[in-house]
């Protein structure tokens, strides 16, 4: 009888939820790349437009980046940075990094942010008074699980990276941070293998297998003790069934047009890339520069908001750009380009223009843009594919090397290493991508596929695949627990 009542209640919820049943959502913007912040903002505003009450929680240094917005923002501050720690306000990692190197540098930042947030009694009281029914947050930081536990609320994992393995499936297993995705070693390349096909040879499968177990060993000996120590410090037992049920769904900003094929569970949804959109007109000075390139076109160069290059690498790249027949539009960070002297130190060619900010989506959508020299972060990867622009991939860390391999496999990219900078291979590879018709043809095919989605990625995230579904699932879980407990059976 209890199960009949449960089924009837869920059917009633299914009937009324899409027609106006609204919930309270807390969108948590944790320290990280600015591109992640922009994606979170876009989805949160779409959720609010559907009638849900939404509130941002962010660092005080990130609050200004969320503007303009009509969504209220609750903020907290970080304690003074100790020597050697990353600066959350301008998160930078210099040069290529292994997975463990990147994790080691960013974990302290996550822990400091979590301590500052949870120790702010006034803010925590405000959040409890707001009483969210659902939390939207990125599980890159274990603080997501801790905050959800303190507020006693389920959460949707907003996965703002490509679904690479074994990062998604194996690493951090047991901490409720995995995405519960199949990881078929026979045809799914693991991160840091540099395998650029799913049709692997015996040697490649053997390498794939060994790499998987290497990450398993690193997980058990280094990463998992670190993360579980984090949870123990904040009094969260992630092995409790209640804590394991908090993660209700994962929304991933990727598309099988580029991603490796594999089966996916129903609670892991590839919603597609959020940031790409039709290009808007460029400012007058940029438009003049782009049009002045003529048929040779423009190479756009950007390494994201986190990765930085050393001075010698930048100088070698500038020398290589000067040899190209195309114009070069190069975005560098303010730390790399603090003043006019830094520009002079690069010894730029007459064909190169540098800036500390550029409208990337609009530049990639310009008809004169012929290629994109990129670190291959997930947003840049999909923006280039959306606009049909081939890529020269120069990955640094995290999901970037695996993204580069997928781009090469799809035929619209070539990959270079940091060791190639300063050699002839670097400008030669760029020229191949700029002039090779096969790369632009493959990029245009991907553009057609990405633009042909029946619903936009934002709609995917906010319709039945997003907040309403998660709210319904949380309500049904809660109802099921109450019914079963009332029937003297513990819900686990």
TrEMBL record:
Signal peptide: 1-22
Domain of life assignment: Eukaryota
SUPFAM superfamilies from the UniProt entry: UDP-Glycosyltransferase/glycogen phosphorylase
Cross-referenced Gene3D superfamilies: Glycogen Phosphorylase B
Classification via InterPro entries: UDP-glycosyltransferase (IPR050271), UDP_glucos_trans (IPR002213), UDP_glycos_trans_CS (IPR035595)
UniProt key word Protein biosynthesis: no
Pfam family, one: UDPGT
UniProt keyword terms in alphabetical order: Glycosyltransferase, Signal, Transferase
CDD domains associated with the record: GT1_Gtf-like
Enzyme superclass (EC): transferase
Enzyme Commission number(s) from the entry: 2.4.1.-
Family named by the database record: Belongs to the UDP-glycosyltransferase family.
Xref: PANTHER family: EG:EG0003.4 PROTEIN-RELATED (PTHR48043), FI06409P-RELATED (PTHR48043:SF145)
Full protein name: Glycosyltransferase
Organism: Coccomyxa subellipsoidea
């Amino acid at each position: 009888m209890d199960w009949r009542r449960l089924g009837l209640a869920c059917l009633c919820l299914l009937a009324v939820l899409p027609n106006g049943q609204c919930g309270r959502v807390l969108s948590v913007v944790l320290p990280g790349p600015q591109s992640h912040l922009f994606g979170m903002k876009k989805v949160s505003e779409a959720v609010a437009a559907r009638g849900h009450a939404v509130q941002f929680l962010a660092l005080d240094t990130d609050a200004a980046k969320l503007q303009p917005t009509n969504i209220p923002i609750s903020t907290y501050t970080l304690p003074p940075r100790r020597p050697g720690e990353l600066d959350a306000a301008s998160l930078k990692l210099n040069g290529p990094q292994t997975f463990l190197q990147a994790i080691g540098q960013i974990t302290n930042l996550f822990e400091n942010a979590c301590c500052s947030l949870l120790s702010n009694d006034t803010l925590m009281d405000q959040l409890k008074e707001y009483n969210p029914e659902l939390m939207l947050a990125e599980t890159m930081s274990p603080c997501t699980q801790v905050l959800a536990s303190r507020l006693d609320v389920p959460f949707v994992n907003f996965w703002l990276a490509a679904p690479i393995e074994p990062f998604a499936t194996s690493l951090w297993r047991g901490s409720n941070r995995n995405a519960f995705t199949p990881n078929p070693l026979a045809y799914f390349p693991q991160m840091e293998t540099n395998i650029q096909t799913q049709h692997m040879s015996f040697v490649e499968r053997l390498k794939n297998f060994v790499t998987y177990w290497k990450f398993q060993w690193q997980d058990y000996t280094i990463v998992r003790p670190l993360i579980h120590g984090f949870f123990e410090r904040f009094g969260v037992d992630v092995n409790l069934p209640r804590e394991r049920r908090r993660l209700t769904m994962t929304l991933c900003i990727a598309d099988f047009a580029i991603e490796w094929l594999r089966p996916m569970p129903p609670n892991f949804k590839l919603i597609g890339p959020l940031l790409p959109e039709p290009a808007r007109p460029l400012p007058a000075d940029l438009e003049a520069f782009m049009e002045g390139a003529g048929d040779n076109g423009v190479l756009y160069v950007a390494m994201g908001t986190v990765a930085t290059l050393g001075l010698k690498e930048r100088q070698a790249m500038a020398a290589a750009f000067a040899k190209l027949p195309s114009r070069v539009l190069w975005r560098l960070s303010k730390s790399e380009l603090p003043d006019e002297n830094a520009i002079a130190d690069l010894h730029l060619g007459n064909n190169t223009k540098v800036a500390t900010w550029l409208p990337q989506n609009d530049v990639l959508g310009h008809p004169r843009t012929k290629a994109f020299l990129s670190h291959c972060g997930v947003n840049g990867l999909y923006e280039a594919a959306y606009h049909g622009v081939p890529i020269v991939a120069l990955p640094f860390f995290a999901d970037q090397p695996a993204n580069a391999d997928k781009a090469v496999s799809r035929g619209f990219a070539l990959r270079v290493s940091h060791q190639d900078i300063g050699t002839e291979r670097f400008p030669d590879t760029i020229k191949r991508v700029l002039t090779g018709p096969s790369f632009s043809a493959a990029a245009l095919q991907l553009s057609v596929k990405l633009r042909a989605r029946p619903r936009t990625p934002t709609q995917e995230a906010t319709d039945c695949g997003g907040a309403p579904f998660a709210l319904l699932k949380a309500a049904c879980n809660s109802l099921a627990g109450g019914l079963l407990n009332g029937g003297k059976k513990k819900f686990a």
